[in-house]
Structure formats: C-alpha cells, structure tokens
Amino acid sequence: MTFLPLPPPGQTPLRVMTIAGSDSGGGAGIQADMRTFAMLGVHGCVAVAAVTVQNSVGVKAFHELPLDIITGQIQVVVEDIGVQAAKTGMLASAEIIGAVADTWRGLGADIPLVVDPVCASMHGDPLLHPSALDSVRTELFPIATLVTPNLDEVRLITGIDVVDEATQRDAAKALHALGPAWALVKGGHLRSSERSPDLLYDGTDFYEFGEARIDTGHDHGAGDTLAAATATALAHGYPVPDAVAFGKRWVTECLRAAYPLGHGHGPVNPLFRLSRDA
Ligand code: PXL
C-alpha cells in the first residue's frame, strides 16, 4: 500500500484529534486511534470522553468524564496546537454528544470531522445510552464531514436493516439526509463473498470500496482504525473518496496483522509496518 508522506525529523507533523473513549485492554477506542495516528506519521491529540473497564472478553463498566473536562480538552488543543482533522468515537451519552457538538460548532473552524457513531462493543456491550440515539441524529451527524456506521449502527440510527445492495443504498441516503456531507455504510459481513464492499454517498454519487475480506477472529478496533486512518488522510488534504479508500486499505493491512490477546477477541494491528521493517 502507498503511505502518506512523513514530515522530516524535527518538523511539526500534522495534528489529528480523537474525541472518544479509553479501552483499558488497549485494543479499540483512543488507544487504537493513537496507534494509527503514530504509525501514519501524524501527531495525535486526545479528548477523553469516557473510560471503559474492559478486557478482550467484554466491557464491564464505563465512566463518563465531566462535560467541561471533555470540551476543555477540545478547546485548549485546537486553540494552541491546532488540528487539521478530528474523529469521534465512543461518546456515551446525549449530554456528551450535545456538549461536543456545541463546542465543535463554537470553534467556527472548517476542520474535517469523521464521526464513527459507536453504539456497542463487538461483544455487544453498550457504549452509548439508547436515549442518546436522537442526539446522534440531530446533533452529531449535522457537524460531520463523514459518518462511518457499521450495519448494527445503521439499523439503530435509521431503522433500515441492510441485507443487500438496494437496502445499503437506502441506508446511505437515509444517513446522508441527517446532515453529514458524506455517509459511508460499511458492508462488513453483508455479502457472502471474499469482498466486503463499503458504500460512500455524498447526496449525488455512490462510490463502492471493495477490499479483500480478512476473516480473523481478531478485529477489535477495526472501525476505530478505519475512521482514524481516514481522518488522517483528510488532514493531508485528500478528497473524501480517496481518504476512505486509504482508510480501507490501512485497516485491511491492520486486519492481516491482527493478533490474539487474552481469552476473547484480539485487536487489529497498526504496527505491521514496524514488524516488516525489522
Ligand atoms: O470499537 C468501538 C469502540 C470504541 N471505543 C471504545 C471501545 C470500543 C469497542 O469496544 O471500547 C472505548
């Protein structure tokens, strides 16, 4: 795969912020985002929204941070360090979504924002209060450059059960109607082929992305990693379809290198680049 250009040593890299939850098991959430940012040569900044108590088997509990601490992290970083793109992950509650959206709008800056509307862990443990779904639709989606729900999240947000190409298109249209500039419907395990086509829509045109599907039991953090790599490509000024294509290739390589961890699901592995160089 082709990589993004790295800054020369000593030169300030591009900055990308994740507004998301911490995974104590280190596989998903902020920890996954920061690994991808680092391996792609950008400086990652963080607004922690919630802390999960989690291992490879499941999420036992989570704690939401105070609203002023979450929004404060965004404000001080953007004011001083500056970011060229951002992504959201686990935001846990309607109150957090509302505060993040207000803060983001208040910045008045034209910074690309990738919204990964995380609702549950891969184990099925909730990471978003069900009462927050309306805020996802009305507060979060309208400020997004790109939204990247998986099929479960599509069902929760739009009510559409994606079972084939036609319903995938319907879902892309329904997501786009909620206000993001672009909507990506991740195909996941939609079709029983070796490919997992994702569908991108900007209100006019559809773009299809089909990378080889990697069947691994270890795909914890795959959605986060796709969104983080896509946000990184947007920070570099890639147009959205090219950024999504890059993110998709990146997560595919991370899936190829995924490893077992603990007794449950292991994480995708953005460090594949290091092990190949070694
Ligand atoms: O992969 C989605 C995700 C995002 N953020 C946090 C998570 C998970 C999945 O478990 O724990 C904090």
UniProtKB/TrEMBL annotation:
Catalyses which reaction(s): 4-amino-2-methyl-5-(phosphooxymethyl)pyrimidine + ATP = 4-amino-2-methyl-5-(diphosphooxymethyl)pyrimidine + ADP; 4-amino-5-hydroxymethyl-2-methylpyrimidine + ATP = 4-amino-2-methyl-5-(phosphooxymethyl)pyrimidine + ADP + H(+)
Gene3D superfamilies registered for this protein in UniProt: 3.40.1190.20
EC number: 2.7.1.49, 2.7.4.7
Pathway: Cofactor biosynthesis; thiamine diphosphate biosynthesis; 4-amino-2-methyl-5-diphosphomethylpyrimidine from 5-amino-1-(5-phospho-D-ribosyl)imidazole: step 2/3; Cofactor biosynthesis; thiamine diphosphate biosynthesis; 4-amino-2-methyl-5-diphosphomethylpyrimidine from 5-amino-1-(5-phospho-D-ribosyl)imidazole: step 3/3
The entry's keywords: ATP-binding, Kinase, Nucleotide-binding, Thiamine biosynthesis, Transferase
Function of the protein: Catalyzes the phosphorylation of hydroxymethylpyrimidine phosphate (HMP-P) to HMP-PP, and of HMP to HMP-P.
PANTHER family in the record: HYDROXYMETHYLPYRIMIDINE_PHOSPHOMETHYLPYRIMIDINE KINASE THI20-RELATED, PHOSPHOMETHYLPYRIMIDINE KINASE
Protein name: Hydroxymethylpyrimidine/phosphomethylpyrimidine kinase
Organism: Mycolicibacterium diernhoferi
